[in-house]
Amino acid sequence: MAVTEPTATGNTGSAWSVRDGLASLDEPAVLLKGALDAVFTRWGTEAGARQQSYPPLLPAEELRTLDYFRNFPHLGSTVTRIRPDRLAALGALPPGATALPAADLADATHLLPSAACYGCFLHLTGTSADTPVLITTVAQCFRNEDHHDGLRRLWGFTMREIVCIGSAEAVRAHLDRHRERIAAFGAALGLTLDRQPATDPFFQKDGARTLMQMLAPVKDEYLHTDGTAVASTNNHRNFFGERRGIRHAGRPAFTGCVAFGLERWVHALGDLFEGDLAAALHAVRQAGRYS
């Protein structure tokens, strides 16, 4: 059964609503989300990142090269077509039908992205550079979560990322620099962010990298007081460099990214400012000037 989540209210009325993990934002939330994205985009461009966008669908055959179906099959949202021989049958479905029968659909060859950086690494396949490459991108991402929870846990959401491709040292410096910026930005907003290690399984569960991940976590999350992870820093080591033939200075490149869940930031600031998104917007614009 579809459930509409509670709305956040600002000076101009309801700011958002969520139904089945899909959010609708009214103008106060749209403006706040845009201001947040402008801050994070500027961080990337100030670091030398080039803005890029990628296709909205990812080929399943290419995701297999990244162990996606070994590590993240539960998150995947597949995209398919209606079989030509079943078009007439679907037109005859009763009015109350709530789903398209799987038998009427073609095999799925593409998925919706569950993180913005996948498109980046697929795009860079087979490339080589002698200096670090920085890219910032934003994408509508989709994760087939086991439950939804307002803007805190959505099926479809917006992710801004700042990606570094280069040496291990360049990636570490990239992540360290943005750890400082996230902390400073949160402090300027009055937003308490608790940095905690996370263990997303980028690597095969039975591989040598898994032990490395346990000894030195590859992902840190920045948690609002209610546990919402609004940002993360991710060190992939040379995994994507090896799997996609991305090279730096003649060797498989190291990669790392800084990720921001924009709707989660809107939730956290709506909570902090007690629903007054106009005040939250003003605070973001002010804090963004000095962070």
In a nutshell, what does this entry contain?
The chain has helices spanning 27-46, 60-64, 68-71, 87-91, 117-123, 168-189, 208-215, 239-244, 262-272, 277-288; strands spanning 8-10, 13-19, 22-25, 50-51, 58-59, 77-79, 110-112, 128-129, 133-142, 156-166, 194-198, 219-223, 229-237, 247-248, 251-252, 254-261.
Structural description of this entry:
The chain has 291 residues and is an alpha+beta fold. It has a single domain (19-78, 106-288), classed as Bira Bifunctional Protein, Domain 2 (BirA Bifunctional Protein, domain 2, 2-Layer Sandwich). Helix content is 34%, strand content 27%. It is built from 10 helices and 16 strands. The strands form 4 sheets. Strands 4-9-10-16-13-12-11 form a 7-stranded mixed sheet. Strands 1-2-3 form a 3-stranded antiparallel sheet. Strands 5-7-6 form a 3-stranded antiparallel sheet. A hairpin with a 5-residue loop joins strand 12 and strand 13 (229-237). The longest helix has 22 residues, at 168-189. Residues 1-12 and 208-215 have low confidence and may be disordered.
